[in-house]
Here is the input.
Amino acid sequence: GKIAMTKVRIICGGEQFSAVLEEELAPKTCAIFKKMLPIKNQIIHVRWSGEGMWIPMGDTRWEGLTYENHTSYPTKGEMLIYPGGISEMEMILAYGSVHFASKVGQLAGNHFLTITDGLDRLYSLGRKCLYEGAQPITIELEAAF
Here is the structure.
């Protein structure tokens, strides 16, 4: 049968976005992510990856998180989580063209979330992040439908 879709709300830099979790494509990642909600952090502009913003997670490691539905080329509105390994654990949100990388080279992250509402406002948030610096971000459960 059809998997119920989980909606999340992203509040960042004075903007609000709706997104869905990619539970069919990345079931394990989404299950782990849901347990971590709500997430309150800050998001900063990427240094190597192009038009993206990222949430550094430092020494945090999520138990059981491995590669699943992973890519190095997310499209606008897609969020990846990098489980950690050669670089620190992080989440990256593409607002334009992204080639996910770090100072040690190309990375791949699990595509687990896609923005469905507010995509037209995402680019200006990315530029705000670039020119004004770190923005507070909250990711919380909206509803299951």
The two ends are 14 Å apart (CA to CA).
